[in-house]
Amino acid sequence: MADVNRGSRPLSPHLTVYRPQLTSMTSIFVRLTGNALLIAALMIVWWFVAAAAGPDAFATADGFLRSWFGDLVFFLSTWAVWYHMFGGIRHLIWDSGHMLDVEKSETAGLIMIIASVMMTIFTIVVT
Question: CATH number of the domain at 22-126, please?
């Protein structure tokens, strides 16, 4: 039978005990950016549906998407696309059995962050 008297130890890592690593945080953000990109895609679909619905609906959607908030959403979506892509590449590398030790994984995480920021700036400047 299992020892049920474990004293005052927590049953699982808790936020006050567990210190997140770079690799875990970057993986969590890959999932978050994927969900955020879905919301941005729905905003684009709204714009297309409004264009088909008529001039009043299109003016509302277009005004929202061209506002400062829409610009912010699409700027962050540009970063999210690059970040999510580099995260996917990193996971493909891990799936092939490479860069699995902690030092190389953290280096890959830093490269992923820096590359996504640089490619976002490049994308915004070029377009």
Answer: 1.20.1300.10
